[in-house]
Amino acid sequence: MPDLSQIIKAYDVRGVVPDQLDEELVALLGAAFAEITDARPLVVGHDMRPSSPDLAASFARGAAARGADVTLIGLCSTDQLYFASGLLDRPGAMFTASHNPARYNGIKLCRAGAAPVGQDTGLGEIRALVERWLRDGLPPSAAAPGTVGARDVLADYAAHLRTLVDLTGIRPLRLVVDAGNGMGGHTVPSVLAGLPVDLDPLYFELDGTFPNHEANPLDPANLVDLQHRVRETGADLGLAFDGDADRCFVVDERGEPVSPSAITALVASRELAKHGGGTVIHNCITSRSVPEVVREAGGTPVRTRVGHSFIKEEMAEHGAIFGGEHSAHYYFRDFWNADTGMLAALHVLAALGEQDGPLSRLVAAYDRYAASGEINSLVDDQPGRAAAVEAAYAERDDVTLDHLDGLTVTAPDWWFNLRPSNTEPLLRLNVEARSAATCATVRDEVLAIVRA
């Protein structure tokens, strides 16, 4: 019997194909998803990985056998699947392992209207039901078998995004996009069709073996080709998408990466102007610039834990108009509170095209502090090393401590957050300060304790 604890994570399903995840197990997951969510109609999409089409079809068969009517939307980005879930008002399943190597695959699940499914919102129940079926056998379904049909929603998805950001009046822009052989190569041409954008495509060929570089723009090594192309061609900016194209990273006209926190602040200011104010969600390791800009723009910032399920919960609870994370996930009320890097990219294009200056000058107003980036330390005792750091700062009068997500220590001119990884023996450190020198000093102080 497979160990489902190794593949059913806090937010999704992820494993090696076929060693951990095969068509038989996926069919059971489809059946359990239909049972737990009572999903009589549901929608299923998949990315470009070699194993994705067959796994998606097996999931559909399993769900249909329990009475669900399944609509297959074929190749799509994760946010395109969320669009279909919102448009059709039905639960959804997206087959992707994002930026993981080709031997991996996985499933991101949502309820109707793109509402998240995580460990505490259905995924734990799905795992328990599949484990019971693996042990005792699959009982007959009380419902008549459902149907499996197909529908292409790419054009609808692209048209919907263009209704949310007006780009018709922007100046012509030269844009390089690195799709990393992922789903951005499928969605970007349709979304940008007819807009005043001269598109220079890099690695748009759909190839789940990732022959050019890993489709993970969070790693600076995977931005090198994009940066070179932007500098070489004199483009106005560059965009890089991850494998399932739900995250978008930006480089300016110099080829320099733009902080996702700066993009969060820029998009937040535009969404606040569009909606006449509102609440903006940000996680606890986005830049201090984000809540500052939100307040300056007449909005209300709300700080939350790292992770899309927490962001989406806060979005729903506060009726927020927008949310952003340091990892380049961007969430929109106008997109069923789901995350879409493509919509954030359209905001960047619109903001740049509505004025004459370069992107570097535009984002400077939203990038006010020096940051360390996320630094990982391999440790034998996560709680012990974190406690040692807390003890070192607990008696200081010039700082405050909180435990919203790991440990955050805040001083007038700097702050840091230290969080344990949920899946590896790592402590993750993020530092921000008013000056690069102070940032480096605090970083080194904390790392000296963590790595002692």
TrEMBL record:
Its cofactor is Mg(2+). GO terms for molecular function: intramolecular phosphotransferase activity; metal ion binding. Residues 374-447 form the Alpha-D-phosphohexomutase C-terminal domain. Keywords: Isomerase, Magnesium, Metal-binding, Phosphoprotein. GO terms for biological process: carbohydrate metabolic process. Residues 6-131, 156-255, 262-369 form the Alpha-D-phosphohexomutase alpha/beta/alpha domain. Pfam families: PGM_PMM_I, PGM_PMM_II, PGM_PMM_III, PGM_PMM_IV. Belongs to the phosphohexose mutase family. This is Phosphomannomutase/phosphoglucomutase.
